[in-house]
Amino acid sequence: MIVDLLKPEFDELIEAKDWVALKDILNDVPAVDVAELLEELDNEIAIVIFRLLKKQKAADVFSYLSSGKGMDLLNLFTAQQLSEVMSNLEPDERVSLMEELPGHLTQRLMNSMQTKDRKQVQKLLGYPDESVGRLMTPRYVKVRKDWSIQKAMDHIRKFGQSVETVNVIYVVNEDERLIDDLRLNQLILANPENPISSLMDESFEALSAFDDQEDAVKMLSKYDRVAMPVVDSDGILVGIVTVDDVIDVAEEETTEDMQLMAGMDVLDDYYSQTTIFEMVKKRIGWLAFLFVGQLFTATAMGAYESVIANAVFLSLFIPMIISTGGNSGTQAATLIIRAISTDDIDLGEWLKVLGRELLSGLMLGLIMAVIGFCVIVSWGFVTTGGLTEELVLSALVVGLSLIGVVLWGNLSGSMLPFVLSKMGLDPAVTSAPFVSTLSDVTGIIIYFSIAIALLEGVVL
C-alpha cells in the first residue's frame, strides 16, 4: 500500500534527478518498502538510489531484496559499499546471502569483511545445510548467575544496541553452558540488589545447532517465544534464533510443500525470479511421470473393452467415478501431510489414522452412493420416461462403486505419506496429481468389477 502511494512521486523525482529530495523521502520509508521500489528499477538507477541510503538502512534494504536483484547490485558495488553493507548485515543474513551466490562473488564478499565478521560467517557456514546453526545469530546478551541485577542491567545497556534482541537474557556458567533464560521484564521488576540467581528456576528450552530449521519453527510456535537459545553438543550457548528468522523458514517450507503437492520439483527461487527454462525443467519430470501413469488407466479400460462394447452407457459414468475417488484421496493426503508437518500426529500413529480414515471413508462413500444412486435414477427417469431394471441396476453399480472408490481414495491418500516417510522421502511428494492418478486406475477396476458382478446376464 505504501509503495503504491510513493511510486508516482518516486518516479517523478528520479526523472527530475532530484537526489536530495529523494534521499530525504527514502530514509523515512521502511526498508522493506524501499526494497520493493528498487526491485522494479534498472540496475544502473537502483545502484544510484542505494547510495543515497544511510549505511544501516542500506544493509536493511539489501536484506529484503530478492536474490537475483541482490546479486545484480553486488556486481555493481564498489569495495567500500560492499564492506559497509556486509558489516551492517546480521551474521545469519550474511550466511543466507553466501549460500545463494556464485563462487567469485562469495570470495569477494569474504574479502570485504572485517576479520571478526569473516570468522563468524565461516563458523556458521560450518554447520549442515538447513540446520539451525546456519539460521542462528551469535549476537545476544548473556549474564552470570552471581551478578547482581543492577550489574546485569548495566551490561544490557552497554551491549544491547549491538545484539539481535534484548527481550530474552541468557544465563551461562563459567564454561559458557546455558543454565537459564530470563525475560527482560523479570529483571526490570526485580530488586536491583538481588542476584540473578534469585530469578532463576533453571527451566528452559533450547535448540541444538544441528537441529533442522523446521524444529526452530515448531519450538518458537509451541513455546510462544520471540527467540530461542541454540547450544552445541556440550550444552554451550553458541547463538539464538529469533522469530523473524523462522517466519522466513516457515514461508519457505510451506511454499515447498505446496509445490511438491502440486506435482512438481521445488523451485530454487521465487516464481518471478525463475526463468521459463528452469520452470519447465522443474515441472516436466512429474508431468511426464503422471502422463505415463495415466497409461495404466487406459490399459485398465482396455481390459474391459468387451464390457464397454455391450453396455456403452457404463462409460458415461467413468469420469464421475474416478474423479470422486481422486478428490477423496487428495483430501485425505492433504489432511495427513499437514497433520504430520505440524506434529499433530507422528509416524507411529498410522494404525490410528487407518482406523479413522476407514470409518470416515465408509461414511463418505455411503453418502456419495446415495447421492449417486438418486442422481442416476432421476436422470434415467427423465431421459427414458420410466424406471427399468437396467436403469436401477446401473444406478446401483454407480452407488456401490462410489463406496469403493471413496474408501480406497481415503485409505491410499492417508497411508501414502506414512509409507513415503518410512522410505525417507518427503511426505508432501504424495501430491494431489499422484493420488489422483492412482485413484483413476483403481477406480476403473472397482467400477467395472462391480458392473460385471451385477449386470452379468442382464445386459452383459
TrEMBL record:
The chain crosses the membrane at residues 284-304, 316-337, 358-379, 391-411, 432-455. The keyword Amino-acid biosynthesis does not apply. It is found in: Cell membrane; Membrane. It is a multi-pass membrane protein. Its main location: membrane. Residues 200-256 form the CBS domain. It comes from the Bacteria. Keywords: CBS domain, Cell membrane, Magnesium, Membrane, Metal-binding, Transmembrane, Transmembrane helix, Transport. It holds the Pfam family CBS. The keyword Transmembrane helix applies. InterPro entries: CBS_dom (IPR000644), CBS_dom_sf (IPR046342), Mg_transptr_MgtE_intracell_dom (IPR006668), MgtE_N_sf (IPR038076), MgtE_transporter (IPR006669), SLC41_membr_dom (IPR006667), SLC41_membr_dom_sf (IPR036739). Acts as a magnesium transporter. Homodimer. Belongs to the SLC41A transporter family. This is Magnesium transporter MgtE. It comes from Fodinibius salicampi.
